[in-house]
Structures are given as C-alpha cells and as structure tokens.
Amino acid sequence: MKVLHQSQFFISYQCDKQRCFFIKFPHKTIQLGFCQLLAFRQQVKEIDLEAHFNGQNPHGMEMLMLCNREHFFIFNTLESIDLKEFITGTFAMLELNSLLTTSV
Amino acid sequence: MKDLVRQKLSIHVDVMDLLNKQIEQEAHSSSAYLAMASWCDHNALSYSADFFYEQAAEEREHMMKIFRYINDNGGTAYSPEVGGVNHDFKSLEEIFENALDQEIAITKSIHNLVGKCRKVNDYTTEYFLQWFIAEQMEEEQTMRRALELFDLMGTEGLGLKLLDERIPKIRNKNTE
Ligand SMILES: [Fe+2]
Ligand SMILES: [Fe+2]
Known about the structure:
By secondary structure, chain A is of the alpha+beta class. Chain A has one domain (about 1-105). Chain A contains 3 helices and 6 strands. Chain A has helices spanning about 35-45, 50-55, 75-104, and strands spanning about 1-5, 10-15, 20-25, 30, 60-65, 70-75. Chain A has a 4-stranded antiparallel β-sheet with strand order 1-2-3-4. In chain A, strands 5-6 form a two-stranded antiparallel sheet. In chain A, β2 and β3 form a beta hairpin. Chain A starts with a strand and ends with a helix. Helix content of chain B is about 75%, strand content about 0%. Chain B has helices at about 5-10, 15-40, 45-70, 90-120, 125-150, 160-165. Classes of the chains: A alpha+beta, B mainly alpha. The interface of A and B includes residues 16, 20 and 38 of A. The structure holds fe (ii) ion (2 copies). One fe (ii) ion binds near residues 29, 59, 103, 106 and 139 of chain B.
C-alpha cells in the first residue's frame, strides 16, 4: 500500500493488489473503490466553506455519507478546510502517477 | 504504482467535471426552450411553439448523450438541478434573440471544454465533442435565420402570423 497524500487530518493510500484506495480518518480507515472515491470527491467539492463563516452554517458542521451510506462522518470547519486540500492533493498525486506511467 | 484511475476511467477527471457542468447547461437550455414553447402556445403562435417543443427535446437528447458518455467511460454523471427558468417575454423576436444568445453561450462552453481536453491530452473526449461543435454551428445558424425573418417581415398583426408559419422552414434541411 502506497501513500498518495497526507494532510493535517487525513491520509490516502492506493493498494495495487486489491485495486482500491484507503482513507485514514482520525478514528477509522475505510476502503473505497474508484467510483466511491469519485463520489467522495464530489461531496467534498460541494462543501460550501463560506457558509461556515457567513452564519448560514452556524454550527460549522458538515455531514458526509460515503460508500452507499456505509459510513457516516461529521467534520468541523477546520477538518472541512483540510478535507478540500486533502482531496485536491490526492487527485493531484493520482494525476502525477498517470503522467509517470504513460511516459515510461 | 499502478494507474488505477486510468484502469477505471477513460476521461480526465477535470474534463469529467466540465462535462457534468455541460449536462447542467443542456438541461437548463431544454427547460428554457420549454418555457418559450409555452409562451408561444399562449400567444397563438403554434408553429413557433412546435419549434421550441422540438428544441427542448433536442437539448434533452444532448444532455443524455453527455450523461451516458460519462457513465459509459467509468465516470459518474450527476442528474442536474434546473433553476431560474425565465417565462416572461415581451415578443417572439425577443424569444429568438434569447435563443440565439443561449446557443452562443453553449457554443462557448463546448469550445472551452475542447480547449481543456487538449490541455490535458484527453483525445477521447475531444473526439466525442466534435459532434457537438458541428451541432452548435447549425443551432446558431437556425436561430439567426429566424431573426432574419424579423428583419424581412413585419411583426404587426398578420405579419407575425405569416412569420410564425415560416418558422418550421428555418431548420437546416441537410441535417434532418
Ligand atoms: Fe444543446
Ligand atoms: Fe442547442
């Protein structure tokens, strides 16, 4: 298993053998297929950080359900900010890997 | 490390996002044409109404084409939400002007997508989008032909009726 990206709170891994991904959250690690990773990315993209600061989301909580509602997460503002960076970083590493494998 | 993404997905991820945006645009376009059809129906312009009903159906087909393309290639297409559809129009001329503006906006958006494909070497999607480039060219021409009718013919009373009857002929015959 190889580390793709590590942010303050989260780590993503790729497992070549099982052809899947793992994400380590502070309290648990979950396994995701590519489609599930895409779905996760979409949900994170849809998080409206501005709402955390302009009073629309006064509790500053984000609720995400992953992998066909198998997992349920609640993130605070700091984690939500980190999550966006984490997803961007993870996909940047995946793209870099794509570039490397095609050029070799 | 294996390229797992490539094993699952033949579209570039960023291109997939833009394709999903395009789905929203086509859906909005379909709804906008439906609103125009309704206005024409209420104002006894039945040929124009039919024209816009057909446009609405076409836009939905465009949307479905992209929707399936994403899913067929391992991505995830998202069912679009449509909001802000305008139902208020002053005249048939204004409707066709809006229709042309809408088509121009979609052409720009498709071109932007092709530009992105080239940047990230997504030749598969670039090829897929060729059909849309040709389609947009025809759509713009169709709307321009409609607007030319307004320059040629009057829009008072009987003139507007006659103009309405000419609307079915503005579609490009070669493409049907
Ligand atoms: Fe279209
Ligand atoms: Fe169109």
